Amino acid sequence: MQGRGFRQDRIWLFAGTGEGPQLAAALERHGWRVSVSVVTAAAASAYSELDLDQINVGALQGPEAITAELKADLPFRCVVDATHPFACQISADLQRACAAAGQPLLRFERSLERGEKGCLLNQWGDLAQADIRGRSLFLAIGGRHLSMAHAVARAAGAEVFARCLPSATGLRLALAAGLPPDHLAVLRPLQGAEPGSIERALCRRWGITTVLCRQSGGVTERLWRRVSDELNLDLLLLRRPAPPAGVETVDCEADLLRCLSGPSSSPLQSTHD
Predict the structure, then answer these.
(1) pLDDT, tens only, 138-161
(2) pTM for the model
(3) What are phi and psi of 22, to 5 degrees?
(4) Contact indicator for 206, 135 with CB cutoff of 8 Å
């Protein structure tokens, strides 16, 4: 990834389609030159209105690939990890790569949602101890976890339903998990005339009594908290992983800008220090 020259106002942002475009736009408004890395072309389209230095599409394979990019280019003021709270591998890879290159790293992580409702699970296996025997369980989780969650829930006596993204990979993962086609909805979250209307309709059609989602924060978790309240459903949440140890973490745009606007040696510290 080649930049336009040596400048200390350059940011490399790793993000998706949640907070990423808004963060990139805010950084641009405050004079930062922003390069963005996303995993898919669909995610890249969310940044099409921005004047980015560069957008890099595709997963970088391991910390060595990230380190090579950092060393091949001129220094960034900071690498900002704004990836999904459950994208633990890329966060670990960024931490290792930035440490190896002596590159400052800052983690942006959306705030935890507040609410009394919801039983937290520490790991997928805890689903076996949840009170789901004879229940109709909706898995509102990522496709990579469907197989494990479906197997545990079925063994615990639940009838399992799920949604998957409308992509070849999403459908393949859902079918490989063993979900019957009539127990599967292919859709993106928050679609329809009113956000959440399709999710509510699915819960009513399938007679859902319990929803499992991830404690990821943001609009999707807020949606399932609201739907669970409205339809009187039990809500299970997989606990969010802890952010990477030793990496400064902020949870709002203002704090991100404040950290980046300090002197080049403070408050940001290289993960190599």
Answers:
(1) 999 988 889 999 999 999 999 999
(2) 0.86
(3) -70, -40
(4) no
